[in-house]
Specification:
Blueprint lengths: L1 H6 L11 E5 L7 H9 L7 E5 L2 H6 L5 E4 L1 H10 L3 E10 L2 E5 L16 E4 L4 H12 L8 E4 L13 H6 L5 E4 L3 H9 L4 E4 L7 E8 H4 L2 H22 L3 H11 L3 H7 L3 E2 L6 H18 L7 H7 L3 H5 L1
Parallel strand pairs: 1-2, 1-3, 6-7, 6-8
Antiparallel strand pairs: 3-10, 4-10, 4-11, 5-8, 5-9
Helix pairs in contact: 2-9, 2-10, 4-12, 10-11
The structure holds 2-acetamido-2-deoxy-beta-D-glucopyranose (NAG) (2 copies).
One 2-acetamido-2-deoxy-beta-D-glucopyranose binds next to loops.
Protein name: SsuA/THI5-like domain-containing protein
Organism: Paraphaeosphaeria minitans
Keywords: Signal
Length: about 325
């Protein structure tokens, strides 16, 4: 066992230039990265996904890329100005499901006043709920937020939002998929009303790196290769068939049929239009600045956050 190691001293060691990507591994949103690595990535070495997110870019210099919703991106960028958003993996129009039947009797967003609404505080889901209710004139104090967890596959356990909607612990809940789809199914589509508005809120699940990584020529070449592979993946996702739904279902522990049912809520974008993304970032940063007790960032600072040089190079 010792001899091969002596003959090939580097053969058993990971390459120093492997691309390291920190991302959630539980959600549909992350799966294009796994698909890109499996089918398309041709960098100088391997690429690996590890559990984490954009916060790791700030705390661990061995991480080259990270994926997260724009909410976490903005929170980190506020304190680490070297972070850059370089690609949009997916934009997800979250849904809020409410019980339209007794006892909640929700027929419109305005009916959510005074209700118990499930979500996960501190995440993009909480921002979504806050923005949806604000769009109907319902302020933060005029409803209660009840914390619950997600469910990826039925049957959903007792602490999950679909189970809480079913037994009346919440009147409604809003979060990323597939929990909302499973919540609708738990109470029956005829007893559910669904609210969704991509203008009011959509998750902008993005890929991030740092200026340090971008200014290292070898690293930049691998980042470009990875984004090129992601772009080919988004093309596959935009023309998804049963084998793609199964790939995604296997990665995140869902049923392929449920993946297909929520597919249309995900837009596999890649790039962005400044006039569509900037207003969302400016607004959201103002909200986050309040809850994080800091000054909002200037428009110029938010523009520096967005770096199109990698997309332009693919
Ligand atoms: C979505 O929200 C926008 C702004 O928040 C509003 O102008 C628009 O009417 C809403 N669309 C629907 C279908 O409610
Ligand atoms: C489904 O899509 C994948 C990826 O584009 C492709 O390789 C495969 O041939 C397709 N399968 C069918 C049955 O069309």
């Amino acid at each position: 066992m010792y001899l091969p190691y002596l003959l090939f001293p580097f053969a058993l060691l990971p390459s120093l230039s492997a691309l390291k990507i920190a991302t959630s591994l539980q959600w549909i949103e992350h799966t294009p990265q796994a698909y890109a690595i499996q089918y398309f990535y041709k960098g100088s070495s391997s690429a690996t996904l590890s559990s984490g997110g954009v916060a790791n870019l700030a705390s661990d210099s061995s991480i080259d890329l990270a994926a997260n919703a724009e909410t976490q991106g903005l929170k980190q960028y506020a304190n680490h100005k070297s972070i850059r958003l370089i690609y949009i993996i997916t934009e997800v129009s979250y849904r809020l499901v409410a019980r339209s039947s007794s006892p909640a009797n929700v027929q419109s967003l305005a009916d959510l006043k005074g209700k118990k609404i499930g979500s996960i505080p501190g995440t993009s889901a909480a921002i979504f709920v806050q923005r949806m209710l604000a769009s109907a004139g319902i302020g933060d104090g005029a409803y209660s937020i009840v914390s619950g967890s997600v469910c990826m596959k039925a049957p959903c356990g007792s602490g999950t939002l679909p189970a809480m909607l079913k037994d009346g612990r919440v009147d409604a809940f809003g979060i990323w998929e597939p929990a909302v789809e499973l919540g609708i199914r738990a109470i029956g589509a005829d007893k559910a009303i669904v609210f969704q508005n991509a203008t009011t809120y959509r998750e902008v699940y993005s890929l991030y790196t740092t200026t340090d990584k971008l200014s290292d020529p070898g690293k930049r070449a691998d980042i470009v290769a990875f984004v090129r592979a992601l772009d080919r993946t988004l093309d596959v996702y935009n023309h998804a068939n049963a084998s793609v739904y199964s790939f995604v279902a296997d990665r995140v522990g869902m049923d392929a049929e449920v993946v297909q049912a929520v597919w249309a809520d995900h837009k596999w974008s890649g790039t962005w239009k400044d006039d569509e993304l900037m207003p969302l970032l400016v607004d959201e940063d103002e909200m986050l600045a309040k809850s994080d007790r800091r000054a909002p960032m200037s428009r110029a600072e938010l523009e520096t956050f967005l770096d199109t040089s990698v997309i332009e190079a693919i």
